[in-house]
Amino acid sequence: MGYDGWGWRPYVSVAERRRKAARAMEKRKKQGYAVSPVSIEGRAIAKTFWGKAWCENLEGYSDYENRLPRGRTYVRNGSVVDLQITSGEIHAHVSGSELYKVALKVAPVAKQQWKSICKDCAGAIDSLVELLQGRLSKGVMERICRQKLGLFPSPDEIQLSCSCPDWADMCKHVAAVLYGIGARLDHQPELLFRLRAVDEAELIAHAGKAAPLAKQGPAAGKILGGEDLAGIFGLDMAPGAGPDAGLAGRKTAKRKRAEKAVPKGKRGPKKQTPAAPRPKRPAGARKSPRPAS
Predict the structure, then answer these.
(1) Confidence at residue 2, expressed as pLDDT on a 0 to 100 scale
(2) In a domain, 100, yes or no
(3) Beta strands in the chain (DSSP E)
(4) Any idea what DSSP says for residue 153?
(5) What is the pTM of this model?
(6) Which domain covers residue 138, as residue numbers?
């Protein structure tokens, strides 16, 4: 009995859905499309900082809480058979009773908001590698993830669309795609910056401007010699007590400490310095009498 558009759709097993989806994706590949399915291993949808932060941001909004659980089930069982993330847009195919098309539009981060994020994080991010790997301080993480003021979109910044007959904007297919984005950020965190139309390198550039000057060495004229120290502090400096004079002394003291550390019984024989030869007396010369004591 076929489905005529009224009542509940006939049940289709997960295995049958996957077979249908696989055939549809194979057709798209033959047509030249790059298919990128979402694959979840284990129960955790996301494992890295960026992926987890995306999912936690979604779950933090009451607008989504009723629809998200079904989405988690769908993304875990491999129903998101294709996911494409570009600047401000997400396009996906989700396997259900049929193969449904999901299209999402995400507003870019407001310029003033992005400037504020860069300013607040200035000096706290050392490299692009640290940024993308999520190796950030607690303060930076809190600032980037702050609801409505951070990098992650709020519900009113996302337009939802699905080809399924569900009347709700947030259907289980859309929810699966939103979770799929979190899983994708595990492997490609830079996609979040593409999606929000900002350049992650600007966070590093601002960090460079605010970096301390401690890494720079002192200028040649700023190094004080022994004479300068004597004049400034009123000290009587021993000859040769300049900046390098202590080096020889430190080496001698270090050698003496090393000798003391070796037990006497295990020390090697001391080197004997040969005595200078005594001058010979001419033949027939008498010894000089010793002075009376």
Answers:
(1) 45
(2) yes
(3) 80-86, 89-95, 99-106, 158-162
(4) P
(5) 0.65
(6) 36-209
